[in-house]
Specification:
- This protein is an alpha+beta fold.
- It contains seven helices and 32 strands.
- It has helices at residues 2-7, 11-20, 235-248, 255-265, 302-316, 350-368, 378-386; strands at residues 32-39, 47-50, 55-60, 63-69, 73-76, 83-92, 94-101, 112-113, 118-128, 136-141, 156-162, 166-171, 185-192, 205-206, 218-227, 269-276, 287-294, 322-326, 329-341, 392-405, 413-419, 430-431, 434-435, 441-446, 451-458, 461-462, 477-481, 487-494, 497-498, 505-509, 524-527, 536-542.
- Strand 3 (55-60) and strand 4 (63-69) form a beta hairpin.
- Helix 6 runs antiparallel to helix 7 (378-386).
Length: 546
């Protein structure tokens, strides 16, 4: 069956073969966000209630998206007399419903939801006994359950994708799951969503009142921007994941199990890597570390990581192993390329050629890096640059590495450990300027002897002669740098403010050999930042050959 899956080309065929492996394609998933609300009602009611499905709106590039609360939220009056609710969850989309009446004499009857944009995880089913009996039972989704554990009277249903990317609801047969009977009335509620298009919604406005209050009586603050939205699973993804999910058998024992399960449950994950605590630095036995990168160069919020651990890993993880979800570490590669070209054979002007070379470099990063376990290949980059145009004679390309240090709290001392995993040039370590504890502006530099010092700067340039910040221990040494391994340690670095206005301090180093490949470690990802001026520097040199 797995062999047929690999050779299938039609979606209906891939879905059918995956079904034999007990794998259902992932539908669209709705983006979710969290809000903090401060409400100021007239009077002092003991409790305010934000109803389920309270509507909010947000927009991206002029396109509006509607969000709604996922549950009712009760906000009691605090001792201080305030009404504050944090982490109110919203989900993007609109709720629709469908009704079916069971007719057992119709052997062809199917219960199909006629919409390809639904988020199947939001499906809710209630079944009324009959038109004359209003008693209602709630059925739950059993798609993630082991079928051998489902009893004959359990009220469950399954979801299967059919042709046209629509979904059919399947009920039990009386042996596995409760069987529906003639005259039952099935009520299906589900959410139609915009999927990934609503990701990154940041500002929200209420539609109508909130807990009965108008806009002058509440303040909305975004706790977590919209994330997690994704499109329906592609056939390429289904071909890749189905055999791995079948191998995992709904339990996380190996690294590949963790990857397959999380990629299935969180389709917004763009890249993931998993390693055991024995491979961590320092070693931490009894743990498994999961680094997940959502779509784009982003990280998951703390609340999202906790939700993944509780809602997914806790159910499937081995009891004796503790999973830890960690953030990816982004290492930025800076490119400086000198291009020798023949203006005679160049069919465009030098400015257009320069733009095309910049595009080639960006395409290299996007196609070959920006995910876990992807290595920077110097020779491939310079070849891509040369192949941009036949008028290019050669290129002399050098690289630097950059990392961002983000203080947890400004003004507090913090230790940073960075491993560039490459041999570094002595004296090449530099950083952005920041304000030190004495009010002066400083940058970090190395002394070519393995020590890092904090040197005073004026307008971003190190003063001459150099003036170093004295540390608490009486020395001028802020940290150490191992030029052989590329490991950097900064001890008790205290940043009062950052001159660039960013939330991070950039540190930059130069490798000893510019044509080296770079291999990222564990949770490291090699990338670039198109918004940084020095991310890609290109110099054009005209070279006419007669």
């Amino acid at each position: 069956n797995e062999m047929f899956l690999d050779s299938s080309s039609l979606r209906s065929s891939v879905v059918s073969h995956a079904k034999h492996l007990n794998v259902t394609p992932i539908s669209k998933r709705a983006a979710r966000a969290k809000l903090d609300l401060t409400l100021t009602p007239i009077g002092t009611p003991p409790t305010l209630i934000i109803e389920k499905n309270a509507k909010f709106t947000s927009s991206i590039d002029g396109v509006k998206y509607t969000f709604a609360t996922t549950k009712s939220v009760s906000i009691p009056r605090s001792v201080a007399g305030t009404y504050v609710s944090t982490g109110v969850e919203l989900i993007e989309g609109r709720t629709l419903n469908k009704r079916f009446t069971v007719n057992t004499s119709d052997l062809t009857q199917q219960f199909i939801i006629p919409n390809s944009d639904i988020d199947t995880s939001t499906i809710k089913i209630n079944i009324q006994t009959s038109a004359g009996d209003s008693s209602v039972e709630t059925f739950i989704n059993a798609s993630s359950r082991d079928i051998n554990t489902i009893k004959s009277n359990e009220k469950v249903f399954w979801i299967e994708e059919i042709e046209g990317q629509e979904y059919e609801i399947i009920f039990g047969d009386g042996s596995v799951g409760k069987q529906i009977v003639d005259g039952n009335i099935i009520f299906v509620d589900y959410l139609v969503t915009s999927g990934s298009l609503a990701n990154d919604c940041r500002t929200f406005l209420a539609i109508g009142t909130v807990a009965g209050l108008d806009s002058s009586q509440y303040v909305i603050t975004t706790n977590t921007i919209a994330n997690g939205g994704s499109e329906i699973q592609t056939i390429e993804s289904l071909k890749f994941l189905a055999p791995k999910l079948y191998s995992a058998q709904k339990r996380a024992c190996t690294k590949e199990d963790y990857k397959a399960i999380l990629l299935e449950q969180r389709p917004d994950i763009e890249s993931i890597t998993v390693y055991g605590g024995e491979d961590a630095d320092p070693v931490q036995y009894g743990k498994v570390f999961i680094a997940a990168k959502p779509n784009g160069n982003n990280i998951y919020s703390t609340s999202t990581k906790e939700s993944i651990k509780e809602s997914i890993l806790k159910k499937l993880n081995i009891v004796t192993v503790q999973p830890e979800i960690i953030d990816p570490i982004f290492f930025y590669v800076l490119i400086d390329s000198v291009i020798n070209y023949d203006p005679v054979s160049n069919l465009t002007d030098s400015s257009t050629l320069k733009i095309n070379i910049n595009t080639s470099i960006q395409n290299y990063f996007q196609n070959n890096l920006e995910k876990f376990d992807q290595k920077f290949r110097y020779s491939q980059l310079v070849q891509d640059i040369d192949n941009t145009d036949s008028s290019i004679r050669n290129n002399k390309t050098s690289i630097k590495y950059r990392q961002r240090l983000t203080p947890v709290n400004l003004g507090e001392s913090q230790t940073f450990v960075v491993n560039f995993n490459n041999e570094l040039t002595m004296g090449s370590f530099t950083s952005d300027s920041f304000v030190g504890s004495d009010g002066f502006t400083y940058s970090l530099i190395d002394d070519k002897l393995g020590s890092i010092k904090t040197a005073r700067t004026t307008d971003g340039v190190v003063d001459v002669p150099a003036v170093y910040l004295t540390q608490v221990n009486g020395t001028q040494v802020q940290g150490t740098i191992d030029y052989t391994t590329g490991k950097i340690t900064l001890n008790s670095l205290r940043v009062m403010s950052i001159v660039t206005g960013e939330s991070f301090v950039r540190i930059t180093v130069t490798p000893t050999t510019n044509n080296n490949d770079v291999t990222p470690l564990r949770e490291q990802i090699l990338t670039y930042d198109v918004n940084e001026i020095d991310a890609i520097a290109i110099s054009m040199v005209s070279e006419t050959i007669i």
